[in-house]
From TrEMBL:
It holds the Pfam family Sec63. The lineage of its organism: Eukaryota, Metazoa, Chordata, Craniata, Vertebrata. Residues 353-472, 575-615 are annotated as: Disordered. Keywords: Chaperone, Endoplasmic reticulum, Membrane, Transmembrane, Transmembrane helix. Coiled coil: none annotated. Residues 402-415 have a biased composition (Low complexity). This is SEC63 homolog, protein translocation regulator. GO terms for biological process: post-translational protein targeting to endoplasmic reticulum membrane; SRP-dependent cotranslational protein targeting to membrane. The gene is SEC63.
Length: 615
């Protein structure tokens, strides 16, 4: 009590204590803070100590390890792309076993994924009615070999998935009970095909690194069939069907009228879009106006992607010079537009060109006729005037001249002497003029050489600045790619038979079509909205020469919209490694001079010591 009264008295009388009281709530200044946890009384009660201990032990030693263990057990079954590891193992085995996979074999391997097995995936269902309905669909499809025993590809779940995939590609109706299972299989198929592409690429890399004849790498055809199967799955089309069936209201019956037309031979979507509006309407006359407008809206929304290719060698003085063993970087710039935008521009340009031609059509015909007549006349005159001209004869030397000319020269000796003197004087004046002309010409040449040297220096500086800017842009591009996380939501795909909304993605890779060899691994372009830059890297060939590759851009959703562009590389010999360099010589000379100076200092010190000893 006395302590409190003393502190209160100090707070009232002492200014410093009063400030502490106003700022910290205590006349003595800031005090240590303490925290506490409010717990129920029954937890800290001594009677309940055993019960609390049992609850804590059950929560942290039994329940928590079980939850973490179950989560870990489920997570290790999947890869980073949420694909079962068992599925990856199945794909690796069968892709290695079958080097060249056709479409039929590819569908069979795709259906063997463990995602469709109820034992490994609870979302996959197996019904008793499958034993009745699946055999009926097999008979309707035909061409399915049931005698071959090749597990897990011949297991019931795999056979069911294969049949439902084939019915989807054939656009066949399935019973309502199987529609849910078919949609589940279709939703999983794009991710599974991407996993199969990754497996094929890994096996190709392993085959190149090992360089063993026994290790067989998958073929380029197997990789491209996987990409094509993705397009077929999204659009619900078989392998050799027309891409025009992707459009609404165009079916097999109507397709014959379009593709077999006498005047318009339409085989692709680009052919249909490139027609004029009136010609296109005449071709699709069997459609009503409402259906025709819907077809045009869908057709105009299809993507049209252009590629700009630039091969180079980064981090090198001469980036355009590709040498043996260098790392080639192909910068591919992808620009996406819709079909409607591209062909509207082309039609406007054509209309602008046709408008003046229609206005002056008569004048053009007149000019053309006159020009044609003048051309004929000119050709006739030229043909008449084309005669061989006599060649100019060179003067003969005096020893070979005829004797009459020699006699005339002897008789007229004085005249000849005078003429010779005049010629000598003329030659002297001409030689002086030639010397002055030579001097002026040499001065001009020196001036032109200086100008050319300046131009070369300026050009070299501009080239260096351009290379420096390109290098800075590439560095900034890499930094942006590392920092930015682009969304994979690009453009929704129009599909009549796919069960969910899918985004528009692409595959970009380089291949040697002649050798059937993959040069650069496929890059999955998932962020192409309007414009995208992609770098494809691969080692240059081991021998100098000219090489012709092909850059492919394939859609994972649309058929018939793939882009192909040639890539020509001229590979040179690698530059020899310099054995002697001026900087190294100067460094060696500097070391020798330092050694000589140190030796001189040592000898001077020894002489001084000897003199001291003598003294």
């Amino acid at each position: 009590m006395f302590m409190r009264i003393a502190k209160a008295y100090a707070a009232l009388t002492d200014e410093e204590s009063r400030k502490n009281w106003e700022e910290f709530g205590n006349p003595d200044g800031p005090q240590a803070t303490s925290f506490g946890i409010a717990l129920p009384a029954w937890i800290v009660d001594q009677k309940n100590s055993i019960l609390v201990l049992l609850v804590y032990g059950l929560a942290f030693m039994v329940i928590l390890p079980v939850v973490v263990g179950s989560w870990w057990y489920r997570s290790i079954r999947y890869s980073g792309d949420q694909i079962l590891i068992r599925t990856t193992q199945i794909y690796t085995y069968f892709v290695y076993k079958t080097r060249n996979m056709d479409m039929k074999r590819l569908i069979m391997v795709l259906a063997g994924a463990s995602e469709f097995d109820p034992q490994y995936n609870k979302d996959a269902t197996s019904r008793p009615a499958d034993n009745i309905q699946i055999p009926q669909l097999i008979r309707e499809i035909g061409g399915i070999n049931l005698k071959k025993n090749e597990p897990p590809l011949t297991c019931p779940y795999s056979l069911k998935a294969r049949v439902l995939l084939l019915t989807h590609l054939a656009r066949m109706k399935v019973p309502e009970v199987l529609e849910e299972d078919q949609q589940f299989i279709l939703k999983k198929s794009p991710a599974l095909l991407q996993e199969m592409i990754n497996v094929i690429c890994q096996l190709i890399i392993m085959a190149r690194s090992r360089e063993e004849r026994e290790f067989r790498a998958p073929s380029l055809g197997s990789l491209e069939n996987c990409m094509k199967l993705s397009q077929m799955t999204v659009q619900g089309l078989q392998q050799f069907k027309s891409p025009l069936l992707q459009l609404p209201h165009i079916e097999e019956d109507n397709l014959r009228r379009v593709s077999n037309h006498k005047k318009y031979k339409i085989k692709s979507i680009q052919d249909l879009v490139s027609l004029k509006g009136t010609d296109r309407r005449n071709l699709l006359h069997f459609l009503e106006d409402k259906k025709y407008d819907e077809v045009m809206a869908v057709l105009g929304s299809f993507p049209y992607v252009t590629m700009d290719i630039k091969p180079q060698v980064l981090d090198d003085e001469d980036s355009n010079n590709i040498t043996v063993g260098s790392l080639v970087t192909v910068l591919v710039t992808l620009t996406r537009q819709t079909m409607a935008e591209v062909f509207e521009k082309e039609q406007s340009i054509c209309a602008a060109e046709e408008q003046p031609a229609e206005d002056g059509q008569g004048d053009v015909n007149k000019v053309k006729s006159k020009g044609w007549q003048q051309k004929n006349k000119g050709t006739k005159k030229a043909s008449k005037s084309k005669k061989k001209k006599p060649l100019k004869k060179k003067p003969l030397p005096p020893s070979l001249q005829p004797p009459k000319q020699q006699k005339q020269k002897q008789a007229n000796g004085e005249v000849v002497a005078k003429e010779e003197e005049e010629e000598v004087s003329d030659k002297g004046s001409e030689s002086e003029e030639e010397e002055t002309n030579r001097d002026s010409q040499s001065e001009k040449d020196d001036g032109s050489d200086r100008d050319s040297d300046r131009e070369q220096d300026e050009k070299q500086n501009k080239d260096d600045e351009a290379e420096w800017q390109e290098l800075q842009q590439s560095i900034q591009r890499k930094e942006r790619a590392l920092l930015e996380t682009k969304s994979k939501i690009t453009h929704p795909v129009y599909s009549l038979f796919f069960p969910e909304e899918k985004q528009e993605w692409w595959w970009l890779y380089i291949a040697d079509r002649k050798e059937q060899m993959l040069i650069c691994m496929p890059y999955h372009v998932c962020t192409l909205k309007d414009k995208e830059e992609v770098e494809l890297k691969f080692p240059a060939p081991g021998k100098p020469g000219n090489y012709q590759y092909t850059v492919y851009l394939r859609s994972d959703s649309y058929m018939g919209l793939d882009q192909i562009k040639p890539l020509k590389l001229e590979v040179h010999e690698a530059k020899p490694v310099p054995e002697n360099h001026p900087q190294w010589d100067t460094a060696i000379e500097g070391d020798e001079d330092q050694e000589d100076s140190e030796g001189f200092e040592d000898s001077f010190e020894e002489e001084e010591e000897e003199e001291d000893d003598d003294d």
